[in-house]
Write a structure and sequence with these properties.
The chain is an all-alpha fold. It is built from 4 helices and no strands.
C-alpha cells in the first residue's frame, strides 16, 4: 500500500475524475468565501491602506484553509477510505462492461427526436391558431 492508498492500482480513472470534480467544487467554495470576505468589510475612504492590506491576508488565509481542508477530505474519501474506494473501483469495472452506442446510432436517434419535436410543435401551433381564431370570432364562449 503506497502512501496509504487503498488498492492503488485499481480504479485510476474514476478516482482521478472524482478528485478533479471535487477539487473544482472546493476551489469554487474557496473563491466564493474570498469574495464574501472581501465584500463584508466596506472600508471608508478615510481608512488607511494598511487595513485593506490586512484584509487581503484574512481572505487568503481563509481561502487557503478551505483549499487545504477540502483537498484533504477529498483525498481521504477518494484514495484512502476503503468503502468509497471500493465503490469507485466497482464503478469503473461496470463502465467497462457498458455497450456504448456508436456515433451513427446517437446521431440517428437525435434526428428522430428533433423531427418529432418539430412536428409536435407545429401541431400545437396550428391548434393554438385555431383556438385564437375561434376566440376572436366569438365562436368559442367560455
Amino acid at each position: 500500500m503506497a502512501l496509504g492508498l487503498y488498492k492503488s492500482d485499481q480504479g485510476y480513472w474514476t478516482r482521478m475524475m472524482s478528485m478533479i470534480g471535487s477539487s473544482v467544487l472546493v476551489l469554487a467554495g474557496g473563491m466564493w468565501l474570498w469574495k464574501i470576505l472581501g465584500g463584508s468589510l466596506k472600508l471608508d475612504a478615510m481608512q488607511k491602506e494598511s487595513e485593506t492590506f490586512r484584509m487581503i491576508y484574512v481572505q487568503a488565509t481563509v481561502a487557503s484553509v478551505v483549499f487545504l481542508i477540502g483537498g484533504l477530505i477529498t483525498y481521504w474519501l477518494v484514495y484512502v477510505k476503503p468503502r468509497t474506494s471500493e465503490f469507485l473501483i466497482a464503478t469503473e469495472g461496470e463502465m467497462k462492461k457498458v455497450n456504448w452506442s456508436t456515433r451513427r446510432e446517437v446521431l440517428g436517434s437525435a434526428w428522430v427526436v428533433i423531427a418529432i419535436s418539430v412536428i409536435i410543435a407545429a401541431i400545437i401551433f396550428v391548434v393554438d391558431i385555431g383556438f385564437s381564431y375561434l376566440a376572436r370570432s366569438g365562436g368559442l364562449l367560455l
